[in-house]
Write a structure and sequence with these properties.
Structural class: alpha+beta
Radius of gyration: 21 Å
Number of helices: 5
Order of helices and strands: HEHHHEEEEEEEEEH
Length: 330
Amino acid sequence: MTGMKLRLRSGVVGGIALAALYMAFTVAFAQNSAQSQWQAPGPVVGGFDKIKVLPPGGPVPRTPDGHPDLTGRWHTGSAGRMLQFAYPVDPAIIRQFDPAVTPEERLVFKPGLPAKYRRPPSQTAAGECDQPGTPSTVLEQINQHAPMELIQLPGKLWMMFEYPMDIRLVHTDGRAHPKDPDPSFNGDSTAHWEGDTLVIDVIAIDERVRNQGPFLSRVSNPTLPGGANALPQGAGGQAGQGGGGAWWHSDQEHVIERITRTSKNYLTYQVTIEDPVVLAKPWKSAPRIWTLAQDPNDDWTEVFCTLNEEPAEIQRLNAAAAAKAKAGGK
């Protein structure tokens, strides 16, 4: 980050420890190196004109067994608070990754997908409401900006989201997946540590929940390269329409999540999605930045989305929008 130096008390940290600490912070600060020249146009409601990129805040907190403690209330971006695209906020602060530093892969779908994987992504059990599920509940916060609350206990990690409201249990006690797990929207999650990274393995994700990120929509994520791209023809739908680039997966989907706390204030989340039925190759996200809430009164709130229109009416509205788009917006 331009203009910032990492200061340590002389004589306390040795060369090897200093090098390791520097490497841990490099990715998080490299993501935000372009924010130095941006200026707010003036006062902004909520003090958004005063937000800055958070410093590391100190070393990684650890549990008694020596592993990083992931516990905390986490926000997307680098400010340690909920951010809004509607306000004039430095893009380097609001974004979760810089595509110039850590490019995010494009989805590659298999040709000739069956119709069940090509249906409009808005056709969900939740109607027009976002449907909680793994890994969408984490990935879609790149444009929803809802906080993520992690509670790490011996043998388990609880992951909670305000919107779409979701509670997820990750087993960290070394157990294997059940031999024949029942599908669920969050799937069956088991995890192990690889150094300071918690690696979560997820299977048995219900086919009725779509994957959404968005994956290719510049409308929802201005930092993604390539503009407002549509998903490949015959695979899901257009980015920014009916789910922001959402797509349907098969019952063979396999998700691998990697969570790394790089300092007191910073955490990164990276996910790989494998689906031999739908995807031509696995899709891997960029490491996405989350920062620790700084306000002690930043408490949990309830956010509900309910279907207030009949499904037939929603279908009519979607058809009308599609016809308008096909006619060139006339």
